[in-house]
Design brief:
It contains 12 helices and 13 strands. With 302 residues, the chain is of the alpha/beta class. The protein has 2 domains: 154 residues, 3-Layer(aba) Sandwich (Rossmann fold), CATH 3.40.50.11270; 143 residues, Cobalt-precorrin-4 Transmethylase, domain 1 (3-Layer(aba) Sandwich), CATH 3.40.1010.20. The strands form 4 sheets. Strands 1-9-8-4-5 form a 5-stranded parallel sheet, with helices on both faces. A hairpin with a 2-residue loop joins β6 and β7. The longest helix has 19 residues. The termini are far apart.
């Protein structure tokens, strides 16, 4: 499937929406009343500290919704406002926040059920409105919903879309996408659906195992068993690790993604030589700073 061509075609459809519906003022007021706190604003204004008797409350300087999450939640609220009577579904949690997801349920937004590990889209009918969450949705899900003649509201974070464009570039030049992420996470499921050959790595330890395999070889069956749930169909470590490109799940730590990228750059340089590096290794900046900023802010408190 030409995923890039499909996405272009989908975006031209009258049933595809990615920019909201013009209800920003109404929705902004609603979001502020539900998700902002005067106490938090008071602590922020007091250099992120609040003293009450012998108790000191310190607030992290970076926390809460990032821009991509704010955008996704606002679009979901706008969707309910714009389609007050239509059946609205969402393909997954809008974000990993129980309160926000519960609020959408209270607004009569249905969540696609998962049966035996698979989403049951049989409940979705023609003309229904379907929200794609901030993490995105697989290209197969988008195609299914398009064929069902649904109205698709795409709240995918632009940083996630940037990663999809990166793996498309890998695929075009026949590079295997090394994706730093969790293979079951909906964002990585979506990203891998846009890739050609891919391998999902959870952490630096797994990356070091793969780097060693590239340089020194190893047990092919052990490799395939170790990553059996995290590789593309027909993956062959003897061939599919000769040309690699780096991508990431945007909620992973920025520093670890950078370490993994540098590791594979050194690995391919060592195996193929500096002058041939670009023929075997690609790296584009797809790192979102939001997760790292919040982790760093938390560490400053302890």
């Amino acid at each position: 499937m030409d995923t890039k061509a499909f996405k272009r075609s989908l975006q031209k459809s009258d049933n595809y929406h990615r920019k909201g519906f013009g209800h920003e003022a109404e929705v902004t007021s609603q979001l502020e009343s539900e998700y902002q706190s005067s106490l938090i604003e008071q602590i922020r204004a007091n250099n992120y500290r609040l003293q009450q008797g012998d108790v000191t409350i310190r607030l992290a300087e970076a926390f809460g919704f990032c821009w991509g999450v704010e955008r996704a939640v606002a679009m979901a609220y706008e969707t309910r406002t714009h389609f007050p009577n239509e059946q609205i579904w969402i393909t997954n949690e809008i974000i990993h926040n129980p309160s926000v997801n519960q609020r959408l349920r209270e607004m009569s937004v249905g969540f696609i059920a998962v049966e035996d590990g698979k989403k049951d889209f049989s409940v979705v009918g023609a003309g229904d409105v379907v929200i794609l969450p901030a993490f995105g949705a697989s290209v197969q899900e988008m195609q299914l919903l398009h064929e069902k003649d649904c109205k698709i509201v795409d709240t995918t974070c632009p940083w996630v879309s940037k990663v999809w464009n990166t793996v498309e570039k890998h695929k075009k030049k026949e590079y295997t996408s090394i994706i730093h992420g969790k293979y079951k996470h909906e964002e990585t499921v979506a990203t891998s659906s846009f890739a050609g050959k891919y391998l999902v790595l959870l952490n630096l330890q797994q990356a070091e195992y793969v780097a060693n395999y590239i340089l020194n070889g190893g047990n092919r069956d052990e490799f395939l068993d170790k990553f059996k749930n995290a590789i593309s169909v027909g993956f062959d470590p003897e061939q599919d690790l000769e040309r690699i490109g780096i991508a990431n799940q945007t909620t992973m730590l920025k520093t670890e993604t950078e370490q993994i990228g540098k590791l594979f750059e050194r690995t391919m340089m060592k195996k193929y030589g500096t002058s041939n590096l670009n023929d075997h290794f690609q790296s584009f900046n797809t790192i979102c700073d939001a997760t790292q900023e919040r982790q760093d802010a938390m560490l400053e408190l302890v």
